[in-house]
Fold:
Amino acid sequence: MTTFRKGLATALGITMTALAVAACGGGGDSSSDIPAAAGPNEHIELTLATFTEFGYEALIPEYERLHPNIKITHRKTGQGGPYAQDMMTKLAAGSGLADVQAVEEGHLSDILSKSSKFYDLTQIGPADASPDRWLSWKYDAGKDKNGKLIGYGTDIGPDAMCYRKDLFAAAGLPTDPEAVKSIFATWDSYFAAGAQYVQKTGGKAWFDSAAQNFNAMVNQLPVGYLDKDDKLTVESNQGIKDAWAKVTDAVGKGESAKLTAFSNEWNSGFRQSAFATKVCPAWMLGVVKEQAGPDNAGKWAVTDAFPGGGGNWGGSYLTVPTQSKHPREAAALTAWLTAPEQQLKAFQAKGTFPSQVKALESPELLSQTDAYFGGAKIGELFVAQAKKVAKPQYKGPNDGQIQENVTAPALQAVEQGKSPADGWQQLVDGAKKLAR
Amino acid sequence: MTTTVTREGTPAGVRRPAPRPGLRDRLSRWDVKASPYLYVAPFFIVFGIVGLFPLLYTAYVSLFHWDAGDDNPDFIGLDNFKELFADAQFWHSLENTVSIFLLSSVPQLIIAVLLAALLSTRLRGATGWRVGILLPYAASLVALGIIFANLFGPKYGLVNGLLQTIGLSPVDWQANRFASHVAIAIMVNWRWTGYNALIVLAAMQAIPKELHEAALIDGAGTVRRFRHVTLPLLKPTLIFVTITSTIGGLQIFTEPKLFDAMPGSNNGGSTHQFQTVTLYLYQTAFENFDLGYASAIAWVLFLIIVVIAGVNYLLTGRLARTPRRKG
Structure:
């Protein structure tokens, strides 16, 4: 008897566990109805998910002090890649996302194509978070095809060019930030100078990686890998073809150090002085300092010129998924974190370059200099670069994957000896496969 | 058990012509019938949840065009499989997997048996040696992957540095397909050889001494005894070790993932030269979020593993045939 009961209990227990496990997978999607705002005295807990460094550590206690009824849990993840995978999985599962979820620019296109799972911030956001707070291209890039605003912009990565003064001098090139501007005027002048540099130095590389330059070039085009109907443009897009021709031609002339960006070899490349120039979004300065190390202090310089005008590389958005139970409070927190005053504090804390017009006008930012880069006025310089960025390029679903998993490997294959024509075919086939 | 229960159920002296079994009675009869099943149930329930259910659910998902986050995935029948069989990248990744598997498992098992033979001889500090060969297995796989990827760096790697100091030309361990397979196989062997050697060693130690002594009296030398006594008696262990390393080898994932120069990449090199099937599966599912197609890959991989493990079983059985025909 007792054994039977025990057995039954065990069986029931296991079944219950099984059901509970199965139930976790389900999780329905909430409707588009927006839950009402909580009363001022109602205690609310919000979660905020970010990756790498957003500089929010000091801001969160400040917000909690200003709003005594709100408690914020900050989930911080180390790397952007795993963070994005985790986010997409939770989005698919229908549960587990934070009330405020940070999204990196490279993964934004995947989110925008699933915009039904996010709140429209123009509907639930506070009135003071009006479009004129942001640089217009940053604001517009946060909208989906139908104009629904999914995310408030945080930081940006305006492009500039970094170069090695000592290596330039050794090759007989000018070294003064003003004098080198003509070299960095267009991609043609840039690659031509590179060919010259390779010749004069007996085969030393001009830039770190073909993919880094190609990405910057494609980002400057009016239409990227996909058009507004999410149709793949690669084969018909003259801009992409031209960029491919120019970059692979430069590879053929020995201008590339053939290093994969962010790999260990690339890190070593900085210390070994393996290349003379580097595409430098604002956040790249920190990377250069970290990898080139104190031994190379004063050798690197940065100038406010970038081939083909301006460009943006990187930066994030804060979104409110429909999974959030307190969307209005989450939107209020999001708006506060992306307000100019807070963005300046975040910049001071972790160097995330603000995307808000007022922040970009602030003397604190404009007076920022960097001793490692010869005391360059990096605040003023990157503000100028940020203003050169044209209107945002529409990024369709899988845009980031095409760039990372198709284009970059295809260019690497060319650097490893594949012919540019075969490499192009690899790009076209890979992009078609992803876009199907 | 039955008798005790029956006695309790029908009190002595009260005998009725047609005894209607009471609740207690019926329950106890159920107890006898059902309890054994309940005792073994936990295993089957756990297996059902973590083994069978995912297997069947994966088969179900493979019939859909299922993008992660889709509310209404399209049912497309066997289209994913049709597409898979025409997918050059899949066959390419399968070739890579088999190549890396052969380059790792074959030398690994041979070296493991030889190592075990060495370790079973009388050595000073035998335990120290035995623990020593297991050390690589105890180290973190991810740490090993990162260290080896550094060693095999095409430009600033230590291996190429050494090659150059002895006057050889450096090898591009990333770009060259075969070289990348060799580098990954070395990583795998480094980790697993000692582990397998210890399993084989345990089996060797279990071989009765009398057999060796008898062979010794018959005049058999060390090599002869190894071939005709030790190896045949290791047969079950060798089968076990071969099958586990087959399963592991065909699912190889971490080493090629970490070997890619681009951090976090699942591409397996610029032209997928070392992308294995599991890496392709992972990329399809968690980078491209094409869950239906990924499930199809998973199922085909499962079937391939079953077939290869079966072939292995037959081959290993033949290689190490028990020499007891005469009885």
Summary: The first helix of chain B runs from residue 2 to 9.
